[in-house]
């Protein structure tokens, strides 16, 4: 892992990339252990859910 701006980046060795045939733009699944006590908070943050935000209300009820 390396810092990339305000985020962290996972570095995948060239040999692994070549062996798997992965290319730029491919989707990679990553699994992280999240402590049970903080799981809801962390998942909400990852999903972009802000508990302090005002509830969403549609301006026009006749639109979907």
Given helix and strand content, the structural type is alpha+beta
Distance between termini? 42 Å
Sequence of strands across the biggest β-sheet:
1-2
What is the tally of beta strands?
2
Query: What fraction of the residues are assigned to beta strands by DSSP?
Result: 5-15%
Instruction: Name the helix and strand elements from N-terminus to C-terminus, one letter apiece.
Output: EEHH
> What's the gyration radius in Å?
19 Å
Uncertain spans, ≥5 residues at pLDDT below 50? none
> Sheet with the most strands?
2 strands, antiparallel
**Average pLDDT, to the nearest integer?**
84
Described by the principal axes of the CA atoms, the overall outline is elongated
Please count the helical segments: 2
Helix content range of the residues, please? 25-40%
Q: Mind sketching the topology for me?
A:
Layout: E1 2-4, E2 7-9, H1 14-20, H2 39-47
Antiparallel strand pairs: 1-2
Protein architecture, described:
A hairpin with a 2-residue loop joins strand 1 (2-4) and strand 2. The chain is built from 2 helices and 2 strands. It has a domain at 1-25. The protein has a two-stranded antiparallel ribbon. The protein has 64 residues and is α+β, with helices and mostly antiparallel strands.
